[in-house]
């Protein structure tokens, strides 16, 4: 999982993308026409300006694309302007503001909302130094963003803060079922998530906060699935470890839509699990992936091989948790992909 001053919208949008001429109106000087913009009418009063950390990551890229396509202003908060400019070239993303860290304050002030997706990927070999960096990469950025939101004058302070966290909050289990009311686990990732969330909750009480505990995000361009697809193409795919571990997943489009809805809908606040309604055992995921790809899924990857590559980080894939999106369902969120088979078909079609 990747798993992290006010700017006028006029710079990023055409004045009137679609003109419609209605019946002529008579005037004393002659004839004139009433002109209206269909796209402007439908979105008038609903446009947002959203600042995004982690915008160059797997989820962040798709979120920025959606916000831009929906005619919202976007501020990309980055530590590498050159990287962000390659991912969001001005010809494809006119009007998007790319802000280096020294410019974050001016970008956040005047934003409608802030989305925090920044953090070092956890699917790597964990050393004591890497573990420290995994935690600090999340805490440092979240703390900075919270401070900048709090220091903004009341009239230009963002109204909503959507901050990513992870289902690692719950710890791991092959038997328990977790929802937003479940207690936190006692392992390293649970500790990271607790500190991550408590840091996000430091924002001013007038700001609506939504904490999205994200599961394993499925998409072709990144995350766990992008690493599994080449193995299956080479007829070398199969379960990791026992295959009995729970896999709480969500399609990339659904997690982006959930974040987008949390920005717009005042009912979205507090903890919301970003997982699909039907988690699966890892072995079932592999069977479904093999079926969609027309490949076998018979070759399991033994625990010892994963531990040799990932060390302690192997726990991310060798252990799991069954997490249900109880709050999202209560809020009426409409998942496009509730079943992993449908999600995989859509991704690989």
From TrEMBL:
Residues 50-267 form the NAD-dependent epimerase/dehydratase domain. It holds the Pfam family DUF1731. Residues 301-347 form the DUF1731 domain. It comes from the Eukaryota. NCBIfam families: yfcH (TIGR01777). PANTHER family: EPIMERASE FAMILY PROTEIN SDR39U1, SUGAR NUCLEOTIDE EPIMERASE RELATED. This is NAD-dependent epimerase/dehydratase domain-containing protein. It comes from Lotus japonicus.
């Amino acid at each position: 999982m990747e798993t992290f001053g006010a700017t006028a919208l006029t710079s990023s949008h055409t004045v009137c993308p679609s003109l419609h001429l209605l019946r002529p109106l008579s005037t004393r000087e002659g004839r004139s026409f009433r002109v209206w913009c269909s796209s402007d009418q439908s979105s008038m009063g609903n446009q947002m300006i959203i600042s995004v950390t982690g915008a160059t990551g797997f989820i962040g890229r798709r979120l920025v694309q959606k916000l831009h396509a929906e005619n919202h202003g976007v501020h990309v908060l980055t530590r590498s302007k050159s990287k962000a400019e390659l991912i969001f070239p001005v010809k494809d993303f006119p009007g998007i503001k790319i802000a280096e860290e020294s410019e974050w304050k001016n970008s956040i002030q005047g934003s409608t909302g802030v989305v925090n997706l920044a953090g070092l990927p956890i699917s790597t070999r964990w050393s004591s130094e890497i573990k420290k960096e995994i935690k600090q990469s999340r805490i440092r950025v979240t703390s900075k963003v919270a401070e900048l939101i709090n220091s903004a004058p009341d009239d230009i302070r963002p109204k909503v803060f959507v901050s990513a966290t992870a289902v690692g909050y719950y710890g791991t289990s092959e038997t328990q079922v977790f929802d937003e009311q479940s207690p936190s686990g006692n392992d390293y990732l649970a500790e990271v998530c607790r500190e991550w969330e408590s840091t996000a909750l430091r924002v001013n009480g007038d700001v609506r906060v939504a904490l999205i505990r994200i599961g394993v995000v499925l998409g072709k361009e990144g995350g766990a699935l992008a690493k599994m697809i080449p193995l299956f193409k080479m007829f070398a795919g199969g379960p990791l470890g026992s295959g009995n571990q729970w896999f709480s997943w969500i399609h990339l489009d659904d997690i982006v839509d959930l974040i987008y809805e949390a920005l717009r809908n005042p009912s979205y606040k507090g903890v919301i699990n970003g997982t699909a309604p039907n988690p699966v055992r890892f072995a079932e995921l592999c069977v479904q992936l093999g079926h969609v790809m027309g490949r076998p899924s018979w070759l399991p990857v033994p625990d010892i091989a994963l531990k040799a590559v990932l060390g302690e980080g192997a726990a991310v894939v060798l252990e799991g948790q069954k997490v249900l999106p109880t709050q999202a369902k209560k809020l009426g969120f409409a998942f496009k992909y509730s079943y992993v088979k449908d999600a995989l078909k859509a991704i690989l079609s």
